[in-house]
Design brief:
The chain has 123 residues and is an all-alpha fold. The chain contains 5 helices and no strands. The radius of gyration is 21 Å and the shape is elongated. The relative contact order is 0.10.
Length: 123
């Protein structure tokens, strides 16, 4: 292991506010475009989930926890390294967690299938 003082000195040299700003300035437009796309997709998903909740007869006062479940599914389903049966198992774990918090399992299943096209995992 190298000398701690030397490590700190090297870090201070390469991590200056000017250098950090230059790096962020060079990637800002790409960051903005990706954030905008994610926000639009998230907003569209929430609107679709609200329609599913309405069709299931859920009172609007109870939308918040169901939307939290949907946001977690959204995040899970947009990971690049998970799909298929693994995604179905993870979605089941999330549904079980929210069912334990007194949400209706049938409504959670409707959100999972209708809005995210995630099937029930195989036994």
């Amino acid at each position: 292991m190298s000398d701690v003082t030397r490590r700190i000195a090297r870090w201070q040299i390469k991590c200056t506010p000017e250098r950090t700003k230059a790096t962020l300035d060079s990637i800002r437009e790409d960051m903005r475009a990706r954030y905008e796309a994610a926000t639009v997709a998230l907003s569209a998903m929430e609107t679709e989930v609200k329609q599913t909740l309405n069709a299931q007869g859920v009172n609007t006062i109870n939308y918040v926890p169901y939307l939290s479940f949907a946001r977690q599914l959204f995040k899970l389903s947009h990971k690049k390294n998970i799909s298929g049966e693994s995604l179905a198992i993870e979605a089941k774990v999330l549904a079980d967690k929210w069912a334990a918090r007194s949400l209706d399992p049938d409504v959670l299943a409707a959100i999972r299938f209708e809005n995210f096209s995630i099937d029930e995992p195989k036994p």
